[in-house]
Amino acid sequence: MKTVKLLAIFLLLLVLTGTLVSAQDEGGFLEVWDQFEYYGMTAAGPALEIIHAAWQEENPNVFLDRSVFGGGLPIRNAVELALNSGDAPDVFYSWPSGAGLTAYAREGFLLDLTPYADQYGWWDRLPQWAIERNMYDGKLYAYPWEQDLEYVYYNTRIFSELGLEPPQSFDDILNWCQVASSAGYIPIALGNGTQWPAANMFTDMVALVGGRQVGLEVLRSESNWNRPELVEALEMILQMVDANCFSEGFNGVEYGDSLGQFYTGRATAIWTGTWVIHDVVGNVPQGELDIFYMPQLKEGLPQATHMSEGSAYYIWSGTENPDLAAAYINFMTSPEWVSTWIEQGYTIPIQAQPIDWSQYDLDPVIEKAFSIGQAMQDVNVDAFHTTTAPNVVRQLYQGMQGVLSRELTIEEFLNAMDEQAAIAVELGQVWAPGERQQ
Fold first, then answer.
1. Pick from 129, 139, 134, 127: nearest CA to 99
2. Scanning 143, 148, 316, 365, which has the fewest C-beta atoms within 10 Å of its C-beta?
3. What share of the chain is helix, strand, coil (3-state, %, to 5)?
4. Can you give the pLDDT at residue 96?
5. Where are the beta strands (DSSP E) in 200-305?
6. Mean pLDDT, range 282-303, rounded to an integer
7. What values do phi and psi take at 278, rounded to 5?
8. Over 90: is that where the pLDDT of 238 sits?
């Protein structure tokens, strides 16, 4: 397939110029897949267009063939199919990391980026937590780029009308749900027909009642999923269900519809994250939007949430242009473009040094969400569904729906998670970054 694509480009050049030009001599061909649209969950399209224009100016003889798969799951599913078919793009921007990356690396689908990290100094650009999420057997297999954080977007006008303030305790959360639902509002819009929202909510609660170390132990198969902290997190979520905190029939509501419930004022809030911040800021009436992170719930454990890299850049092991692909990634993640990614793409570029958000032209809500979340990154828990093995993720999605509908008990769900985690261990699909190879 690559040969056919190159031949087609050569013939096009022949028609246009009357001369057959060697792609190798002139720069080459690079196929790239990403998820950067102009709207929705991956609205960094404006930033990417600016950076791509600069890339093409510096590389006028490189033919860049770009495809866009919006959202999160479309790009992930497309990449998985392409890798298994043996005809993947040279560079793709997708997820997951952790055990998911391990599965890809063990299958030989990914190019080892360690030499390029040495060449371009990527080790100095990235924080250790992000490096570890994208390593396998001591080698780097992806360049993690945008950080995801989860918190609550809320309508300040409705909160004020109901006499509510951002909660400072779990009792405050339950009171918020009681007051809002009694007034005819959906307290928290939830669309778990898409399945991943409840998985994120679960991770958030584990961060608040278990802490980062508990999350690491579970995700690295150093402990069972069926442990007291995770039981407690699920029990608290069920208390919220009983308090009518969420959209009616939430397991059948799609994520986009839950956003619509919030945008139209039917819901007082939505518990989601940075990946949709551009959409939220653009759809909530001016002056009515603010955010808060769920409060500290246990003495001795700090306020926290879940985090991960929203996605990362990978190079297919079958690429015919590995150096060109690495040069492209290096260009896209260069420090010179950080402000473009922030101001035009509404993303949090993953950086070794904390970002001073006050120096950028941002909506105050965006600056607040980014700065608070970044300050907590040492205590946040890695997102469960972007870090566990594929078979564990499937059980997580389906099991959370079962727990929330009470078709499964908490014990049944967590035992099923342990069964799937054991299978992942047998397959060697466990997040185990190992020591960096020097």
1. 134
2. 365
3. 50, 15, 35
4. 85
5. 267-273, 289-292
6. 96
7. -60, -45
8. yes
Distance CA(123)–CA(133), nearest Å, equals: 13
C-alpha angle with apex 220: 219 to 226, nearest 5 degrees? 55
Q: So what's the pLDDT on residue 70?
A: 82
Distance of CA 15 to the CA centre of its chain: 43
Token reading at 403: 């727990």
Please determine, for residue 19, whether its predicted confidence score (pLDDT) is greater than 90.
no
Phi-psi category of residue 346: left, alpha or beta, with phi > 0 → left and psi -120 to 50 → alpha: left
Architecture of domain 31-438: 3-Layer(aba) Sandwich (3.40)
pTM for this model (two decimals):
0.90
Q: How far is the C-alpha of 151 from the C-alpha of 274, rounded, in Å?
A: 8
Backbone angles phi, psi at 245, to 5 degrees: -75, -25
Q: At residue 29, what is the residue type?
A: F
- Looking at residue 16, its amino acid is L
Q: What is the dihedral of CA 384, 382, 67, 429, to 10 degrees?
A: -60
Residue ranges covered by each domain of the chain: 31-438
- Tokens found for residue 78: 């497309």
